Amino acid sequence: MWYLIEDFFEQNLLMKGFIGFGWLCVWVMAFSMYDTASTLF
């Protein structure tokens, strides 16, 4: 697990931005699915 964090910190700033933006999209998608499911039921 720790080698993944070390690999992340070795990336340049552009790649960190892409990875961070990807994780932000994942969180938004998960919250959107939760919010949609809560309104349906």
Put simply, the count of helices is 2
Class per helix and strand makeup: mainly alpha
The biggest sheet, with number of strands, parallel, antiparallel or mixed sense and barrel status, is: none
Gyration radius, to the nearest Å?
15 Å
Mean pLDDT: 90
Quantity of strands, as a count = 0
Relative strand content: under 5%
Helix content bin: over 70%
| End-to-end C-alpha gap | 37 Å
Query: Globular, elongated, flat, extended or rod-shaped: what is the shape?
Result: elongated
Task: Write the element-wise H/E pattern from the N-terminal end onward.
Answer: HH
Q: Could you list the spans in which at least 5 consecutive residues all have pLDDT below 50?
A: none
Outline of this structure?
This protein has about 40 residues and is mainly alpha-helical. The protein has helices at about 1-10, 15-40.
Q: Can you tell me about this structure?
A:
- With 41 residues, this protein is mostly helical.
- Helices cover 90% and strands 0% of the residues.
- The chain contains two helices and no strands.
- The chain has helices at 2-10, 13-40.
- The protein is elongated, with a radius of gyration of 15 Å.
- The mean pLDDT is 90.
SSE layout and pairing:
Layout: H1 2-10, H2 13-40
What distinguishing features does this structure have?
90% helix; 2 helices; single chain; 41 residues; mainly alpha
